UniProtKB/TrEMBL annotation:
PANTHER family cross-referenced by the UniProt entry: CARBONIC ANHYDRASE
Pfam families: Pro_CA
Catalysed reactions, as listed in the record: hydrogencarbonate + H(+) = CO2 + H2O
A molecular function GO annotation: zinc ion binding
Entry binding sites for Zn(2+): C39, H99, C102
Keywords: Lyase, Metal-binding, Zinc
Record-given protein name: carbonic anhydrase
EC number: 4.2.1.1
Stated family: Belongs to the beta-class carbonic anhydrase family.
Cofactor remark from the record: Binds 1 zinc ion per subunit.
Obligatory cofactor(s): Zn(2+)
Enzyme class: lyase
Gene: cynT
Length: 228
């Protein structure tokens, strides 16, 4: 047997011992405080970034490129993974979590600028991101280096996903949609693992966000304040 699996199962015993008494309040259902939409990336510690150790607090979704959209016969809609806690458990906070150096954003950038060949499943996911990033790629300044371009587009993608939530008829007005970027590459502040707020309900101007949400002022940061 793969030794990694053996090791993981041994570590699960530690988890089970630690959490044994923490599931009592969620035996009959869940009412998570927030739904988070993270990127499927092994470097993104989806509950760990919030220091969360309480079962039932966060409804965590993950996919390539932290997308909130899925394609159906009726067209593109908010993904059921994201919508479920909003529609059925009363969750009123949705957090889209992008991250620095995102591989999905990088792949989409490469597809839009140079063409890219991927297996069909990955191609499908990139195909859902590409329409959201096309305008962002075109708006990048001339001469920008690749790393900076990617991290600007990470923000741009987060903005577009928040916009999709805000504009969806399936998401009630009572839901607050927040966009953040998880930084583990010293891009924003030099504190690895810190989360930076870049968008709240479609507002993305740093000064406006800091005025509107003074309690978040020191956590609001952006790399790119573009016109659109």
């Amino acid at each position: 047997m793969n030794q990694t699996l053996v090791d993981l199962l041994e570590r699960n015993l530690v988890h089970a011992e630690t959490f044994e008494g923490r599931f009592d309040d969620v035996q009959d259902g869940q009412r998570p405080d927030a739904v988070t939409v993270c990127c499927s990336d092994s470097r993104v510690l989806q509950d760990g970034m919030w220091d969360n150790d309480r079962p039932g607090q966060l409804f965590t979704c993950a996919n390539i490129g932290n997308r909130v959209v899925q394609r159906t016969a009726e067209g593109e809609v908010v993904s059921g993974d994201v919508l479920y806690p909003i529609a059925h458990t009363g969750t009123e906070l949705a957090i889209v979590v992008g991250h620095t150096g995102c591989g999905a954003v990088t792949a989409t950038y490469d597809q839009l600028t140079e063409g890219l060949s991927e297996p069909p499943g990955i191609e499908h996911s990139i195909g859902l991101l590409a329409p959201q990033l096309q305008d962002g790629v075109e708006a990048l300044p001339d001469g920008i280096d690749r790393e900076t371009a990617i991290n600007r587009l990470v923000e741009y993608n987060v903005d577009r996903q928040v916009e999709l939530l805000v504009e969806s008829d399936d998401v009630p007005d009572s839901v607050t949609a927040v966009g953040v970027v998880y930084d583990f590459q010293d891009v924003y502040s030099g504190r690895r693992g810190e989360v930076h707020v870049v968008n709240v309900d479609g507002t993305r101007a740093v000064d406006a966000l800091r005025r509107a949400y003074p309690e978040l002022a020191d956590r609001v940061n952006r790399l790119w304040e573009y016109d659109r």
